[in-house]
């Protein structure tokens, strides 16, 4: 089940947090609850992706994106992700989540998020490709930035982000074609 109450709590908790610049860092605190775990008594990998919403959506609020999405009747979608899992998160363990927009191009926004254990270890890290969508399809990030009142230059793409974009572009689509159809 989607953690609606936890999301509402995060939005409420951060409703008066200071506004952030477009590439600002949003930090939030969370717990791994019993319904978040898998058979090995640790945070389930799929649930990790869902819990990242608890940081990404309040980030969108703090940079002003949610207001723009509502006003323009736009949506927000995830168009790709790459995750690294490095440390286990156990039931009832407290985690710190860090969320920020890294960069953008003509079509997509690139966000990163990470979860940190109480001893300062990074448990996992994700890079997202996201898009703002409207009736006509994808809304160019430059248009979104203008609606946010942001007029600074695009930050450069870090090498690791650029490498992921290039590698992902080589993946076949649709995937796993039937060899008899090739």
Automatic annotation (TrEMBL):
Coiled coil: none annotated. It comes from the Bacteria. It holds the Pfam family 4HBT_2. PANTHER family: PROTEIN THEM6, PTHR12475. This is Thioesterase-like superfamily protein. It comes from Roseovarius tolerans.
